[in-house]
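Justification of computing resources. Each target in the renewal requires a structure prediction run like the one illustrated here; the chain below, 218 residues long, is used simply to show the kind of job we budget for.
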Amino acid sequence: MAELSQLEYSLQVHGLVVLGLLQESPEKQIVLIGNAGSSIWQAFAGSPENQDGLPHPMDRWSKRIGTDIASELEADVIFPFEGPPYPPVLNWTEQAGQAFPSPISMFIHGKYGLWHAYRFALLLKEPLTGAIEAGPGVSPCLSCITQPCLSACPVDAFTGDYYRVGDCVDYLSGDAVSACREQGCSARKACPVEVSYQYEPPHARFHMNAFLAAQKLV
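Resulting structure tokens:
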């Protein structure tokens, strides 16, 4: 039986953290793994995947790291970007009680705010010993009176109920030096929750460019 602290130590060298635990049954535990802020950026930026010029470098990096760690634990590994059908990672996130839907179509984490992402999930046959810090139980968005995220987008792409993806893509495509392209999504950056975890500019630019490239392929 593996210890949570041992897993956290193995993840640390890659800048990864445990984002949630979900006990599906006495025999199966799901461990959600990802980044907190730009914790992965240094490890990823210097990786072969980021330097070989091939598509989807971060997904390929995540797959290599996740596969290796799963092998060490004799666990199965699931990647959120593999499908269809795609695994229900966001459902697992809600069930784990660590993160919640936000008004701008991203999940907000009780500890890391909007500045986290799920890179893979481990399926363990035996639960880890140890526990992560309990989640807040409710979304921090519920106590955010002004919700500045909804008014910060330069093209009003977020309504609170709907994300106008086309408006966002048109804006990003038409202005390669906008604040959103250079610093990351303005609506996301307007969130007052856990601002210390905001992505570093190179990390933010990487994701914005990857998002735009993916939308152009759809």
